[in-house]
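Section handout 9: paired folding examples.
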Amino acid sequence: MLYKAAALLAAAFLCIQPHPALAQTQPLAHYNAVELARESPTKVQFAFALNLPQVLHQALAPQLAYPAFLQRYADLSDLALDKEIAKAGVALSAQAYFTLPSGAKAHIKQWQLPDAQALRDSFKASLMLLNMPPSPASHLDPVRVLAQVQAKTPISRVQLQLPPALYPIVVSLPNDKFWLTEQIPMAIVELP
């Protein structure tokens, strides 16, 4: 009887363990990503795909537990949430920039974050996901956020630094792709 129970348990375990080849094709929680595109010699557009609730948690209230942050910010009025969104844009801009060859910093600005209702819905969906059993497929779709850098001189070879709230993030250029993480917080980029 004991052997039969052990055999059934082993068979059940094998059935629920995905085959290694299948595990690689199953969707995983997305990582933050950004694509850089030159708009003019002095202007670069950033198109982010972000797990925005986690980014905003790190940017606005990292001292709060994540579920408490989600609940508190989901309950804010539109006016209060709009103020927090503006604060997030300022906080992100302060830590996101190109360092030009002259040593001057060109900050990433004009963050186009979603409106208050879209953010509130995202916070509520994140809260619901926290209460569900963990699954590789249970994550929010990335949120598109645009921003830009405008410099006084042409932008070609620069050092890129992004806020730690975005890490890990994969950076895509027309001719390169790399990761920025807490261990690798900056990179030299060449924009064609």
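Moving on to protein 2 of 2.
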Amino acid sequence: MHGSGVINNMKRYRQILLLGLIALFVYLVFYGFPDSPSPWFDEGINLGIAKSWVKHGVYSLEIAPGEFVKERSLLITTNYPLLLWTALSFKIFGIGLWQAKIVMFAFLFVFAFLFYTLAKKYYGENNALASLAILITFLPFYGNGKSALGEIPGLTYFLGGLLLWENEKKWKVFLSGLLFGLAAATKSIYLIFVVSVFAGEFFSGTKFPLGNLVPKLKRVMVLSAGMAIPLLIWIYTLLPDNFTFDYLVKTWQLYRNPYNIESAALTNFLRFFMESTPIHFAFLFLASAWFLIWKPKNGENIKKVEIALAVFILLNLVFYLKTAGWYRYFFPAHILLFVLAPPALECIAGKFKNILITGLVAAQLAVLAVNIKQSLYYNPGPRRFAEAVNRAVPRGQGIFVFDLPEIVFLLNRDDVWHYLHANPHIAFGEDLLKTNRYPAYIISNSLPPGDKYGIKIDGGKYVLYERTK
């Protein structure tokens, strides 16, 4: 009786903890709706593409009335596995910010469910609850996940594929391949999902990596057939009307090194010893690496899923070292480490695991409480500025927007010209001022238009100028 009572108490405790985590998660997802976080540059591009798709039937970004970016592969880094759902929401509910946010909320809820299910399947309920607690109290999960970006949607498809992956039924293998293909097609960086999955297929379940090659190849063919469908659609969405070899080279150079940075690796590597978020990542990374190295030495096989996770995390880390250093570039690997961290800490620290995880979650809660109201995570300013512009500027007057795709989306009007630097080396649209054309209104945060204009609305980061001469 005493033993069953303890078991029932533990079960009740886990249920209460799970309900508490769900309640916190729901609150944080809906906190500050729809301005948490406010739309920003990359999100503005994604929302603009979905808007153009719905309004004009053109899968690209409108840069002037009736004119669209032709070199889509140089612009579109988040693709149809997210933008399709965003466009569908626009089609049903109208074009606007909240209509985009509800799509991301749906992905967040599905992702959290799949995340918990995967952790529970492979590491048990206690570790799954620990993983969920780390996830739900991690502030960047909401900063990145509530924005119309591809990180969480791609990971959602990936987790769905992992949950079906080890099943031997051909239709489930095919469906897992389809989900992996959708994951890879969501963002250009997520093409490394393909490498991760094939590594798991060939290097798991046997001491000799290529043992049982024929059955593996048959399974891989079914898996590849599933992957091929969304990836072929992805390629089709990026092809220009006039495809050339030079265009292919230019696209490859962009994907290989988007910011044309050649000497950032050391600087980015040192961040993992000097800055809080990379240090957080490094702690979980080292614990998880030790766990995966220890398993075979202790006579345990590394699971197929673990190989895929490890390869993706490593490749994502390598990619990050070549970038401009923004934490968002290793965010996907960071999130996936939360699956491995609790069993890793259990392996390393034994009964002290719960103390370590409680301390980690408490620290994350403190960071969340201090920062959740900062402008990075909640800012109605861009939406209110766009509403003020729409009221102040009569339709048809013409507005030139300099490098602010989020404002172009929020304006939601047809008399807008847009000059856009997609990155420091690629620009789209036309800078009207350099061609001595002076529209009635200009919106900028960094380009004083000279003596021909005066300030009409000062929105701080965003300023509306009106032509006076």
